[in-house]
Structures are given as C-alpha cells and as structure tokens.
What does this fold into?
Amino acid sequence: MPAISIDKISKRYGKVNALTEISFEVQKGEVFGLIGPDGAGKTSLFNILATLQLPTSGKATLLGLDVISDYKKIRKEIGYLPGVFSLYPDLSVYENLRFFATMYGNKIDENMHLIAPIWDQIAPFKTRQAGRLSGGMKQKLALCCALIHKPKILFLDEPTTGVDPVSRKEFWDLLNTIKQQGIAVLVSTPYMDEATRCDKIALMKEGKIITINTPVQIIENYKGKLYSLKPKAIFDLLNYMPKCPIKCNYYPYGEFMHVSFYETDFNLQHFTDFLAENQQTFSELTQIQPTIEDCFIELVTG
It folds into this structure.
C-alpha cells in the first residue's frame, strides 16, 4: 500500500482552477518532489493532503485513510512544514521542540534518534528565542518539530525558500537520512536544481501535472539537441531569434542563451551562418546536457 495515493484531485477557488485532476502515488521511504513555479498549485495540494482544506473533487488517501472522513487519524501520522515559519518566535528552540512533542503525547527522548543529525546543529542555540534564529536554523528547528512525534509521512512546502545555498544543501542531505527511516516525504520547491535530489518528481504548471518520472528519466526524455551560446549582446540577439529559419527553442540562461534544435537533419553550421548574417557575434557555442530546468521549459513551451 502506498503511503500517499491521489486520484484526480481538483481544487477551485471561485472561477480559478488551482488544481486539475492531480493523480500520483508516493511510496514509503521515498522522496517525491513537486516542482514548479509560484502559482502551480503546490501549496493547495499540501493543504488538502494535510487535511486543512477540502478538495473540490477527487480522492486522496494517506496510509489508506481518507483525507476527508479520516482526517483526525491522519493528523496523528503526518508532519507538516509549511512554506512560512510557523513556530512560536518568543519560545526558545528547546521550548518549541518540547511543545510539539507534548502536543502529540510524546517525550523528546523517545524520538531524539530521528532528529539527532539536525538537532546536533541547532543544540548550541537551544536557549535562544526561535524568532532570533537565522533562516536556515529556523527551517532546521521547524523540521525537528515536524519529526519529533515520528510521523509516517512528512510534508515540506518549499522548505528552502529564502535559505542560503549552504543550508539548502544541508537540508537536502538531511532528507536522505529521514527517508532511510521509512518515512514518505512529499516536498515542493521552485528550485529546479533541487529536483535531482528527489527519487521521483512531478513537474507542475498552472495546477496541472506535465509529467511524472525520475529525474534521470526526465532528462533522458529530452527531445532536442541543446546548445549553450554566449553572445556578445544577448538582448540584441533575442530580437533576431524569431527570424531564425531553423526550428528551435531559446531562452536566456544567465549570461548565456540556451538553444534547443529539433530538426532531424539539423546542421549547426546553418545556425552559425544565421548569426553571422545578422551580425551576432559570440564567444562560445557548445552542446550541453540538459538540466531539469531545461526539460521543464521544453515541456511547457514545446
């Protein structure tokens, strides 16, 4: 039995469709990522699964329990880390942890082994008020509080938003430890680079799932031949690209432009000729391996 089973879940707010027939499963000990920009519907789905909102239609079960009729039982089995800091800022780090353990009828020592890798990093600040922690430390404390009752399912809604790169990496390293305990983890993020840390991902846009697969398989399914181009004047080149006679997809990528070609008989010389004819100079033009972000853009615009 899967830890999470979602069957054609939809959610409407008035005339706005936040979710449209979302379906997927998450297994025990699996990190499943919801990847997509703001407004993709990730938080709405989390609120439904955490029994905080009702779906407009469809069905979802957690550990075989229905999110509507069995919501009281479900709340005892899940941990939820929302996208905004939701702990008590005036309580100390340790007081927050003790509060959440007591609320679930547990003692801190019972499940300290589960949060030990995280707690060791924040223990030196256990007497500090939670509101005075750094962004990364706040998220680590929130994760400890979400895990202290040893949930069977953990929901993480954009847990690394606003967190520095080092803390982001540390946070994802911790998720590998958590899943080894058999806990199912459903995590959302707007950062495409974090998708590769998941066992399986669902790419979302405007309340719909574009594709579901492993990160490796999504990259292998990339249809085009992707090149990285470093032009002298990227914004000038953007004005000329619509005139390109070769079927391609293009977009700025920092100081580079990523260009993907789809013709079976594609000849790179034809593209460089097009650049020369329009007085577009460049210093680099290299074929590259696509990232999850490149795949997402191809699926959205292709």
